[in-house]
Amino acid sequence: MILRQFLQDHVLGRRPGSLYVSGAPGTGKTACLSRVLLDCKDKLAGSRTVVLNCMALGSPQSVFPALAQHLGLPVATGRECIRSLEKHLTAKGPMVLLVLDELDQLESKGQDVLYTLFEWPQLPGSRLVLVGLANALDLTDRSLARLGAHPAGSPRLLHFPPYTKEQLTRILQERLGQVAGDPVLDSAALQFCARKVSAVSGDARKALDVCRRAVEVVELEVRGQTLLKPLPGGDSPVSPVPKRVGLLHVSRVLSEVFGDRLAGGSRGAQDTFPLQQKVLLCSLLLLARHSHTREVTLGKLHDTYSQVCRRQQLPAVDQAECLSLVTLLESRGVLEVKRAKEARLAKVSLMLEEAALEHKLQDTALVGSILAQGLH
Ligand SMILES: Nc1ncnc2c1ncn2[C@@H]1O[C@H](COP(=O)(O)OP(=O)(O)O)[C@@H](O)[C@H]1O
Ligand SMILES: [Mg+2]
Q1: Cα(76)–Cα(316) distance, rounded to whole angstroms?
Q2: In this structure, are 27 and 132 located in the same domain?
Q3: From the CA of 13, how far away is ligand 1's center (Å)?
Q4: Any idea where the Cdc6 C-terminal domain is (predicted)?
């Protein structure tokens, strides 16, 4: 496994270097790296490991103070901060393993942030090993071309291809199998989901979301049936309700999720948030300001979001889809979800500073208008 070998060679072998991991969203970059870090925990104990999700930064430049803070350096700004980091990383000491997830977020004018970071392992006496994870496939070609000029120093590249149907099937089986008891999804349904998702994107997150959503649909159906329960005069217990998620459920969810998207072919809005996610984030931001707390229930969030959509005359998604959106945002490190028995009661909290989030959202007139109107 390349990741493991890279850490072995560079961190344990005390050779500075960099690795650039690319791949479409949901291809397992974050999952694999987390797993490798966990597996190598003991071996890496002698070095310093810093993992930063760049999605949580207010701007590309703020990666430097964030890193300084993690390394326990006095926090400075601008050039001064970069200089103190360079000094620290070329001084004697243990190897420093820096993992930057969602690296796309560091793209800046002239790409100086990325250049600076990827040049560090090449400084004389450097003890930095840098691993960057990015969703954009052409980031290196476009941005790191300049680094190619130093043959010794250009980052190693590792590409994560989309999951195949077989891999997705295995991932789904494994993840759904963690839920005790009978298989929740019947196997035809599961394979169908894997086949469809692999045909579109190979996005494991999507596949898992589709299954989760299908389970919710079935739960709703079951609840609907139990409401009808007391049969007039009947002593026969209600017939056992179908608890399994079948092909039909999955197929329905799939067409909901992919139906229009397949036709519209809207792809690659990676650097910004899709419209509905933006509106949802705005709603969360409004709620956070309004109630001075970072944590709200999904029900409350969905209410506010629906209200905002009405006011902006946008179509609103239902609560189950809202949960899927929230899950997507969670996987990008923007917020955290504490799941509850009932979706409505799940707790959603913002992981970004409000100012940082607003900065990320501020680019559209729509966002400005939603935030300016506030909550009534
Ligand atoms: N090999 C795997 N086994 C089990 N789950 C996986 C595997 N790869 C990815 N996943 C799951 O799929 C989802 C997306 O993976 P993730 O690593 O976040 O993708 P990326 O970082 O490339 O966008 C996560 O929920 C993750 O737990
Ligand atoms: Mg990721």
Answers
A1: 44
A2: yes
A3: 29
A4: 281-361
The tokens for 158 are 């590792």
Mutate to test the pocket of ligand 1, among 34, 205, 208, 332 (most ligand atoms within 8 A of CB): 205
Q: How far apart are the first and last CA of the chain?
A: 55
Residues 78 and 99 in one domain: yes
Q: What are the residues whose beta carbon lies below 5 Å from ligand 2 (ion)?
A: 30
Report the interhelical angle of 247-264 vs 187-200 (nearest 10°). 10
Q: Are residues 280 and 335 in the same domain?
A: yes
C-alpha 28 – ligand 2 centre gap (Å): 7
Tokens of 113: 């942030």
User: How far, in Å, CA of 112 to CA of 358, rounded?
Assistant: 23
Q: What is the pLDDT of residue 137?
A: 59
Pocket mutation for ligand 1, best pick of 131, 169, 175 (most atoms within 8 Å of C-beta): 175
**Domain coverage including residue 359:** 275-373
Measured in angstroms, how far is the CA atom of residue 316 from the centroid of ligand 1? 28
Q: Across the 376 residues of the chain, what is the mean pLDDT of every consecutive 10-residue run?
A: 93 94 90 95 95 92 95 90 96 96 86 89 95 77 58 76 92 82 80 89 89 84 64 49 76 73 39 76 90 90 93 86 87 86 91 81 72 77
How many domains does the chain divide into? 3
If asked whether residues 55 and 70 sit together in one domain, one would say yes
pLDDT at residue 363, rounded to an integer: 62
Domain co-membership, 337 together with 215? no
The pLDDT of residue 216 is: 82
Ligand 1 centroid – CA 136 distance (Å): 17
